[in-house]
Amino acid sequence: MSLQDVTIKTEYRSLLDNVVKEFYNPLLKEAISYQRAVGYFSSSALVEITKGILGLVKNGGKIQIVASPYLSEKDIAAIRSGYELREQLIREAIVREMKVVQSDYEKKSLNLLSNLISDGILDIKIAFTENENNLGMYHEKMGIISDNNDNKVAFSGSMNESSTAMYLNYETIDVFCSWNSTGDCDRIIQKETAFNSIWNNCEPNIHIIEFPNLKQEIIDRYKRTAINYEKDVLEYQDFNSVQETEGPYNMMPAIPENIKLHDYQIEAIDTWEKNNYRGIFDMATGTGKTYTGLGAIVRLSKILSNELGVIIVCPFQHLVEQWVEDILQFNIKPIVGYSASIQKDWKKRLESAVRDQKLKTTNGEFFCFVCTNATFSSEFVQNQINKLKSNAILLVDEAHNFGAAYLSKSLIEKFNYRLALSATLDRHNDEEGTEKLYSYFGKKAIEYTLERAINEKKLTRYKYHPIIVTLNEFELEKYADLTKELGKCLMKGKNGKLKLNEKGKIIALARARIVAGAKDKIAKLEECILPYRNDRHILIYCGSAKILTEDQDITPTDIDDLRQIDAVTDLLGNKLNMKVSQFTSKENIEERKILKKEFSNGENLQALIAIKCLDEGVNIPKIKVAFILASTTNPKEYIQRRGRVLRLAEGKEYAEIYDFITLPRPLSEVNSLTELQMQKEIRLVKNELSRAEEFASISMNMCEANSVLEEIKEAYYIDENQINFEEDFNYE
């Protein structure tokens, strides 16, 4: 056989493909050479590809690996202080990353690794970049596999040479075969040339260190017995790893070494544990709710000897993907379930996980399923949950949503451990829904406010600029007509209080759109953004009055939303020549990842023009200036939105928020209103002021912001004690 006889795809994705079983091992069995350059190397990778390596050894092959050490900031600072310390500190950094042997399979595999080094089959060189005395990691990730017939397969992508990259991280590689197109051949030649240049220390700004003592360290640590490759190869090939057959090996939740929980996070977990593993983490957006929740899972899993089913639920697809990124860091490979999940077989995976836990199969007693609200409440998932026979925890992010009737019915007693995460758990104008949440999840284990987070420097400070905009004559007339219609749509609820019927909810949404889409906002935005036209990390938030239905896990973008966002895009992109992009539900997950990366970089993209991203939990810490064109009267929503703008980021001393306050008419016209006209408009004004007062209260420029708000209060004769939100049956 040769490499040509192996079925090879053009792309492999670690959460879809078993990269070890389908790519590495089949190719290496037919190879005589394996050259690999990676940004990060761990001995754990060679544990996974043992069977393939043995085939290569049997063919008389050789392995060359160039890797970069994982250097901490402390390491780099120490190296910069004296050239003579460099090799010693790099060696110590690599030794830190050497795998602690646990299973019999690891013992045998790492014994093979040490034999390969001592017998001259495997050679490892360490690379780092150095330019004008600036030391850095060598980040390239590529590989070339060759056989006896001069067939070659080259690959490149995001995957490092470690078992975490192969099994836990979401990684991809692109593959090129020499017997395919001319383009593939050219790519392979380029990669071979680059690898040989690096290996021979000829590549500019990349330095190679050969460590005879490092190789001896590996031999001393891992070598147990000498290997007779002719005799022992069959024994090794028959000794399967769990990864090759079932998936992640030894998937035990653990807090990663590079993450240190703050004292308040540990205290929250302690309190949750004392309350029989039930409770609420009421933490401001950006203060580490996700890590605290995952830390709680790690704590519970250890106590239960990893006999635990974990169900994590959050409202939106994009929020699920952010959770997946964090979950993987905690040594958990999740099943990812929602309508457009990249794991197309997630239903089969979930069925198997529930069955394996029930049967207590080896390495099957722990599993993690992360999904959207819509998926969790579906008949299929609820049926699987009802089949659970062992310990299970339900962790709900943005848990206030589960006070709604259609979601609260899925809060079943099957879960003996429960955890709710939310920046604002209390539901707006819904005491019954709020009570359901407290009844099911229990008491608050922590209440970490946004003000405390700013004071303790977990979130950045901010300046608040309220910008007054007004409805034009047509908008005001339409707003008044809809308000009149709302009065005809009232009905008594179960608690005796008035509420809107279904027709009223539709009318309220239409009225909210008038406020959100006021045309004056575009003109005021142009005035406000001119000083920033050459800046970057700008967000223009257009919002949306649309709400999710029960079966949706992504907010649809309709024509009314697009009307404003297209007008903003035209203003910034065409008139002001700024580099901008829209960020809506039209962009898929991969496109959003690219946009977030480009936005953070700031070179090709100055501003994002977004709908709903502040509600969907999108994490973009680099946002420095936010123009909020469309806000909400719902405190839980606008408090969350503000928190997302205040995330810490390098070089971000403070954030700026421009909040467009919509009033019925210019303040100069208010004096001419009759008392009846004033009453019809006062509620909109008070509701806008309620948000503005909250934003201004802890801003850096509180006095300046309040002076604008005082003008509004004086014009409408509003007393300080009358600012609280007044029910006007707004439905958002």
TrEMBL record:
A Pfam family = ResIII
User: Has UniProt tagged this entry with the keyword ATP-binding?
Assistant: yes
InterPro entries linked to this entry: ATP-dep_DNA_Helicase, Helicase/UvrB_N, Helicase_ATP-bd, Helicase_C-like, P-loop_NTPase, PLD-like_dom
Q: Which Gene3D superfamilies match?
A: Endonuclease Chain A, P-loop containing nucleotide triphosphate hydrolases
**Boundaries of every Helicase C-terminal domain copy:** 517-690
PROSITE patterns hit by this protein: HELICASE_ATP_BIND_1, HELICASE_CTER
Keywords, A to Z? ATP-binding, Helicase, Hydrolase, Nucleotide-binding
A GO term, aspect molecular function: helicase activity
Q: Where is the Helicase ATP-binding domain?
A: 270-443
PANTHER family tied to this protein: GENERAL TRANSCRIPTION AND DNA REPAIR FACTOR IIH HELICASE SUBUNIT XPB, RAD25/XP-B DNA REPAIR HELICASE
Descriptive protein name: DNA repair protein
